[in-house]
Amino acid sequence: MPQMLNVSPAEQGVRLINLHRPDVLNALNTELLGELAAALAAIEQDPDTRVVVLTGSRKAFAAGADINEMAERDLVGILNDPRVAHWQNISAFSKPLIAAVNGFALGGGCELVMHADIIIAGEDAKFGQPEINLGIMPGAGGTQRLLRAVGKSLAMQMVLSGVAIDARHAERAGLVSEVTQPELTVERAIALARLIAQKAPLALRLAKEALLKAQDTDLASGLRFERHAFTVLAGTQDRKEGIAAFQEKRPAHFTGQ
Ligand code: CAA
After folding, report:
1. Is CATH 1.10.12.10 what the domain over 201-247 is classified as, yes or no?
2. Model pTM?
3. 206: which of 2, 160, 190, 214 lies 20 to 30 Å off by Cα?
4. Over residues 145-170, mean pLDDT
């Protein structure tokens, strides 16, 4: 079976993961999701990789769950779906994950994009939750993460109508942080990833965790978590190094200790 995922070697702390099922616009079948979850789990343990960029093709980041595979699953099949564990593993990735999105990001593709911490989109990108057209609804975070990202009215519009929004609309709504020319999307995401890869890994990890907490906790608990995380970082070598580098007017060299 050909690999459905290309994972680059780590370069300047960054790996590029490319979804690769070109015949079906990178439709996310169980195998592809499993490969992605396994690749991220391996990268989690790799100290040379500090940031990951995830991308698809120029035509499609991913056009959703694989509808043909889904058609074969009945209620019990969906109850026992191994994809749930794959999604959980993807969402547990603790390093910064940047999605570089060109073309279609639909259904499970849009849900995968929303697992990323930062989304860079090409001008031709389209984000949508078209499940309603299949007589179903999003099932991998599309109602929960989309509402948190773009607010109630637009999330309702997208999920209930199935109509996708373009990259500029996604940027205005806060789903996407930057829009680029499509031929520059991956390049821009990698440049941003390399910048982030120079920062202190433990600070990145805790900052990511604190920001994600803000989405699903009340303010007082979030602030408590932030203060604890901030305090924990006081014990790291990298904090000493960062402050010393500032005082000595030199670039900091962070090791993750
Ligand atoms: N699953 C399986 N195959 C898919 C697919 C998908 N999600 N999306 C596209 N393909 C296949 C098409 O069947 C087609 O295959 P053939 O060449 O063998 O016919 C090939 O990819 C190219 O697609 P199109 O010819 O349709 O390309 P297009 O440019 O005309 O249209 C599109 C592109 C608008 C994205 C259209 O393909 C489309 O609507 N795809 C389905 C999108 C969708 O409904 N996604 C949601 C899936 S459900 C889900 O995601 C649920 C969940 O997570 C829980």
Report:
1. yes
2. 0.96
3. 190
4. 98
